């Protein structure tokens, strides 16, 4: 009623969209790193490489899979959204590569122990160790981050169901674009840097942003975790559809992180948390290491596309660890699980993420002004 319809066709495609072509090509070349990891594992299976060499090569491959697109984004004049999508895709590739290397290392160790007779063939912990391109290709496409040689499969593909979910996906993507253009962008443009204005003014803008942001957050969650991952799973006949649990009813911040993103949670438990515990560290250290990995990639996914490294996302994620103790203390004090749920909603969705968005937006604008002044 105040601004009219601000949604324009240029939101989807314009002449400036051609700047994102290098990022699109970069995304198409990412399977090269899976091919490199496959050849390393194949050579390791044939005992052509020592374990130290295998680990060194995997560290190089996984590091290059992140540095290559990150440096490309920093050098290109691409849009922030395209850079964010590519870095999100790169993060998924990195997580899958680590799981592929780690799981094959464990399978190789079990296979060697079985060959020496240390583990009987009738034991429940015996697994067949076979490196083949078919299992890797399926893992690359499957909606999971944890590598296995086989997965539960469904009997058939429900084609009509897939078409219906695709229609829903298109509708909700359009709805999210409308929310961004009609409500979120005007709030950003009419705001000032939260750290450079009065506290009440900053709080007012952040709270005003929180309502459309919540709708956007629900839309993104529904589109990716409920629609897209289930579509991919249905097409691939992937049987495990536990992509999320009831995170909106989380009784604490800790419970929220265990429920809202099950593929990442399972990856963290399998490849970071349990290995830390087996090395002799405490649970709090293992939890901190898991959030450290998450914090680094959150900062990369936002900082690299924005060309701004103020570590807002990094510290926001690491702040979750002391929040665990704080919410547990309040729950024990008031003997009410609703307290933890209120704290979770306030710090995660109502105040925390909108504040980080506001900070990144103004740092991005300031960074672009500095670049224009130096030209």
Tell me the span between the first and last alpha carbons. Answer: 40 Å
Low-confidence stretches: none
Order of helix and strand elements from N to C terminus: HHHHHHHHHHHHHH
The number of domains is 3
Instruction: Give the percentage of residues in beta strands.
Output: under 5%
Structure description:
The chain is an all-alpha fold. The chain has three domains: about 1-150, no CATH class; about 150-240; about 245-375, no CATH class. The protein contains 14 helices and no strands. It has helices at about 20-30, 30-45, 50-75, 80-115, 135-140, 160-190, 200-235, 255-260, 260-280, 285-305, 310-320, 320-335, 335-350, 350-375. The radius of gyration is 23 Å and the shape is globular. The chain starts with 20 loop residues before the first helix and ends with a helix.
What layout of secondary structure does this protein have?
Layout: H1 21-29, H2 31-45, H3 51-75, H4 80-115, H5 133-141, H6 159-189, H7 199-235, H8 253-259, H9 262-278, H10 283-306, H11 312-318, H12 320-334, H13 337-350, H14 352-374
Helix pairs in contact: 1-4, 2-3, 2-4, 3-4, 4-10, 6-7, 7-14, 9-10, 10-11, 12-13
């Amino acid at each position: 009623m105040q601004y009219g319809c601000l949604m324009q066709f240029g939101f989807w495609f314009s002449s400036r969209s051609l700047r994102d072509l290098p990022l699109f090509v970069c995304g198409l070349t990412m399977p090269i790193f899976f091919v490199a990891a496959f050849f390393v594992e194949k050579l390791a299976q044939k005992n052509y490489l020592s374990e130290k060499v295998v680990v060194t090569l995997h560290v190089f491959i996984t590091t290059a899979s992140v540095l290559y697109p990150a440096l490309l984004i920093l050098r290109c004049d691409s849009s922030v959204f395209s850079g964010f999508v590519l870095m999100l895709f790169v993060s998924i590739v990195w997580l899958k590569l680590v799981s592929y290397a780690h799981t094959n290392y464990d399978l190789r160790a079990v296979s060697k122990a079985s060959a020496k007779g240390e583990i009987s063939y009738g034991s429940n912990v015996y697994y067949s160790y076979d490196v083949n391109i078919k299992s890797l290709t399926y893992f690359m496409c499957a909606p999971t981050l944890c590598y296995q040689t086989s997965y539960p499969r469904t009997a058939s593909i429900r084609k009509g169901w897939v078409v219906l979910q695709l229609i829903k996906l298109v509708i909700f993507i359009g709805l999210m674009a409308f929310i961004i253009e009609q409500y979120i962008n005007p709030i950003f443009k009419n705001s000032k840097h939260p750290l450079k204005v009065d506290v009440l003014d900053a709080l007012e803008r952040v709270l005003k942003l929180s309502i459309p942001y919540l709708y956007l957050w629900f839309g993104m969650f529904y589109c990716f975790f409920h629609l897209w991952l289930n579509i991919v799973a249905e097409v691939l006949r992937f049987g495990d559809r536990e992509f999320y649990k009831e995170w909106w009813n989380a009784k604490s911040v800790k419970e929220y992180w265990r429920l809202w993103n099950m593929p990442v949670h399972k990856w963290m438990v399998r490849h970071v948390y349990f290995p830390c515990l087996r090395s002799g560290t405490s649970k709090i250290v293992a939890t901190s290491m898991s959030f450290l990995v998450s914090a680094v990639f959150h900062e990369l996914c936002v900082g690299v596309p924005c060309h701004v490294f103020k570590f807002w996302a990094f510290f926001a994620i690491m702040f979750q660890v002391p929040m665990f103790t704080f919410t547990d203390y309040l729950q024990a004090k008031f003997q009410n699980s609703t307290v933890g749920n209120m704290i979770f909603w306030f710090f995660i969705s109502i105040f925390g993420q909108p504040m980080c968005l506001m900070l990144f937006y103004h740092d991005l604008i300031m960074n672009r002004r500095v670049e224009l002044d130096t030209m």
